[in-house]
Write a structure and sequence with these properties.
By secondary structure, the protein is α/β, with parallel strands linked by helices. Helices cover 43% and strands 17% of the residues.
Length: 313
């Protein structure tokens, strides 16, 4: 074979594709069910074969060359998977990547209903880090979609090859354990009193700052009781009594009903329920009309509508 057209080992390509999809070596190793050292070795071997750096060692993200290479090989690997499924007379599964909190607390409890209603659809739910960039290169297959949360002040740019729909726009409000509220001396009198409370943050203070801005509360400094990377982890810390977290109906599950968490409500001024962003379903152009994804999209919007009616006063 002409060396110009040498094809890298499939194991190396699979490891690279898994790294690109998941955003991390250990997550890729978990997906492939191999040791993380094997993924690292495959990535190094692939970089040596192609003669360029595919991932930035400092940030852990793909380089521009890596993104370009992944966008080119992902459809080819998907084609191999489809061809293999076809010859085995199997239907390729529908993969839905999803922010952890939405996946665990809202979508997962409803998937049994989806599977009973549509037993012919093989749905793979893959929770991912809420802040993992899911760029167009990651959804160029016709059996792959993504559900993510985007704040209004941080909406991703529109991409020509990607279609999307906002599936929910839930109000965001502070919650804490009853023990935490007691330790704070009871419910705050005013919204501004929360600036003296132990506030649990995600990756940074951006969500809390947006919330205070939406309620017209000046906040020169946002107090931090701990940074915990993702919304569902901040809520876990709130259940443990470590502070006040921001949540919404899609993250809380039955926490409010069973008393694990309590809404933090000022006693001396009204607090409007304010959305800060939306949950969005997106997929590539060719995936959008995939029969399985069309069914899932319709079902998902129906379930969100039921949730909305249930929460209405």
């Amino acid at each position: 074979m002409d060396q110009r057209y040498r094809i890298p080992p499939l194991a190396a390509l699979n490891a690279f594709a898994a790294f690109a999809r998941t955003g991390g070596i250990r997550r890729a190793a978990t997906e492939l069910r191999v040791d993380h050292a094997a993924v690292s070795r495959h990535l190094r071997d692939l970089e040596q074969i192609v003669g360029t750096t595919l991932r930035d060692r400092t940030s852990g993200t793909l380089t521009q060359a890596g993104q370009t290479y992944y966008s080119q090989i992902a459809p080819l690997l998907e084609g191999l998977a489809r061809a293999t499924a076809d010859i085995r007379q199997q239907t390729p599964h529908l993969t839905v990547t999803c922010a952890h909190g939405f996946a665990y607390h809202w979508l997962l409890p409803r998937l049994s209903l989806f599977r009973r209603t549509y037993p012919h659809i093989d749905l793979l739910l893959r929770p991912v880090d809420a802040n993992t960039a899911f760029h167009a290169n990651g959804i160029e297959t016709d059996t792959h979609a993504d559900i993510f949360y985007a704040r209004d002040d941080a909406m991703p740019p529109s991409l020509r090859t990607v279609r999307s729909v906002a599936i929910a726009r839930p109000p965001v409000f502070p919650v804490a354990s009853s023990g935490c509220i007691t330790a704070m001396g009871g419910q705050p009198h005013f919204l501004a009193d929360l600036l003296k409370a132990p506030l649990l943050q995600e990756e940074n203070e951006a969500e809390w700052r947006c919330w205070f801005n939406a309620h017209h509360v000046p906040a020169a400094r946002i107090p931090c009781a701990g940074r915990l990377w993702q919304a569902h982890i901040t809520l876990a810390a709130a259940r443990a009594g470590e502070g006040v977290a921001l949540g919404n109906a899609f993250l809380l599950g039955d926490d409010l009903e069973n008393g694990r968490l309590v809404r933090v409500i000022p006693t001396q001024e009204p607090m409007e329920e304010t959305p800060l962003g939306s949950y969005i379903l997106r997929a590539s152009d060719r995936a959008w009309e995939n029969h399985s994804l069309s069914i899932f999209r319709t079902w998902l919007l129906e379930q969100v509508a039921i949730q909305t009616v249930t929460l209405s006063p």
